[in-house]
Amino acid sequence: MSETLIKEVESKMLTTINHLVDEFATIRTGRANPALVDKLTVEYYGTKTPLQQLATISVPDPKLLVIQPFDKNSLDEIEKSILNADIGLNPTNDGEVVRIPIPALSEERRKELGKVASKASEDAKVSIRTHRRFGIDEISKLKDDHSADEIKRLETQVQDITDNFVNKIDELLTVKQNELLEV
User: Fold this and answer.
1) How many CB atoms within 10 Å of residue 79?
2) Between 16 and which of 51, 86, 105, 127 could a Cys-Cys bridge form, CB atoms 3.0 to 4.6 Å apart?
3) pTM metric for this prediction
């Protein structure tokens, strides 16, 4: 039971880290990255459809995204959804593909995005701490069945896991902020 609990807490914390990595991928760094647009939905024959299901997204060079739709009739809708997403990208439609040049970020925009990344990492830390609280609460329910030393060992184990994940969040934030500051 106790090892299962530790695994469950660790699994929840890992899910939080994965969510943060996904969130960081959507923060524009001045480099082309398919994650900038792959979460967008496109109105396709009256249905909201994920862009990934309508087209291939490629990066022919570091400053350009190319979206090749499977159905050429969806070009206008893809272009419209990118414009409406308000992510600071200006797509061009040449009748075959949608090209999205990635503009360089201004210093002000870099700082703004750094704050967005900081907030996302802080939210992830709060989530990690919530999972720790869950683990500690569940461990305290085991006091009747386990010795005080065993309870303390489990609590220490949960705290160590928490510290490792918080450090991982700090590392991810540092990497993202360095990416944002690169010109």
Assistant:
1) 19
2) 127
3) 0.72
Name the residue type at position 179.
Answer: E
Say how far apart CA 95 and CA 97 lie, in whole Å. Answer: 6
Own/partner pairs, 91-98, CB within 8 angstroms, 24+ separation? 91/67, 96/68, 96/72, 97/66, 97/67, 97/68, 97/69, 98/55, 98/66, 98/67, 98/69
Contacts of 111 (CB under 8 A, 6+ apart): none
Locate 138 and state its tokens: 């569940």
- pLDDT classification of 20: cutoffs 50, 70, 90: very high
Question: How confident is the prediction for the chain on average, in pLDDT?
Answer: 88
Q: What domains can be seen in the chain, in order of their start residue?
A: 2-26+106-181 (1.10.132.20), 34-101 (3.30.1360.40)
Nearest to 64 by CA among 95, 104, 27: 104
Nearest to 77 by CA among 100, 98, 106, 105: 98
* Separation of alpha carbons 75 and 5, rounded Å: 49
Token look-up 């329910």 returns 141
- Contact call for residues 32 and 61 (beta carbons, < 8 A): yes
How far, in Å, CA of 139 to CA of 143, rounded? Answer: 7
pLDDT of amino acid 1: 61
**CB-hemisphere CA count at 13 Å for 53?**
9
